[in-house]
Design a protein that fits this description.
This protein is α+β, with helices and mostly antiparallel strands. It has one helix and eight strands; from the N terminus they run αββββββββ. It has one helix at about 10-60, and strands spanning about 65-70, 85-90, 105-110, 115-120, 125-130, 140-145, 155, 165.
């Protein structure tokens, strides 16, 4: 009676491990890029949702609405660092500041990871008037992470109040 043994030889096992190693070497960097692109897209979409919300509320309520960076989520920061969080409020007296009697419509927590979203120091807040327009200069909020300018994106809000996403080429 003969027993036929099945299994892998040492050479077959080494070849299989080498193939797995090579495939993993190609897959891991691509997965990391995919993961970071997805995180940036998610955070861009979250801020764009807040922009549309603020614009719609200005039209529905018939009041000026402000969207501004806020780390504390209780007042606007004197910075243009949107990655630390932001808030949307109804600006009844049109002074572009959150006063005690004004209503906070929504707040958003800080962005995830090492992502940074920074606007120009010349336009730190977004004001929507009763018609949903955002008068003044265009606002650009640049999104960058540790990968540098090659992967940078920006949200640009025009005077009509509509946001769009663009590749910036710089951080």
């Amino acid at each position: 009676m003969s027993h036929k043994q099945t299994g892998m030889t040492l050479i077959e096992m080494v070849i299989a491990l080498a193939v797995i190693g090579i495939l993993t070497g190609y897959a891991v960097p691509n997965y990391q890029t995919f993961k970071h692109n997805k995180m940036m897209t998610t955070e861009i979409n979250r801020l764009i949702s807040s922009l549309y919300f603020a614009r719609n509320q200005s039209i529905i309520l018939g009041h000026h609405v402000i969207l501004c960076p806020s780390q504390s989520l209780t007042s606007c920061d004197a910075s243009s660092q949107w990655h630390k969080g932001w808030l949307v409020f109804r600006d009844d007296n049109q002074n572009k500041k959150l006063d005690n009697n004004e209503i906070v419509l929504t707040t958003e927590q800080a962005m995830q990871g090492t992502l940074q979203a920074v606007a120009s120091v010349y336009r730190q807040k977004i004001r929507y008037d009763r018609l949903g327009a955002s008068p003044g200069t265009n606002l650009s909020i640049r999104f960058c992470d540790f990968r540098g300018a090659e992967f940078a994106k920006a949200i640009i809000v025009n005077n009509v109040g509509r946001p769009r996403v663009a590749d910036t080429g710089h951080c």
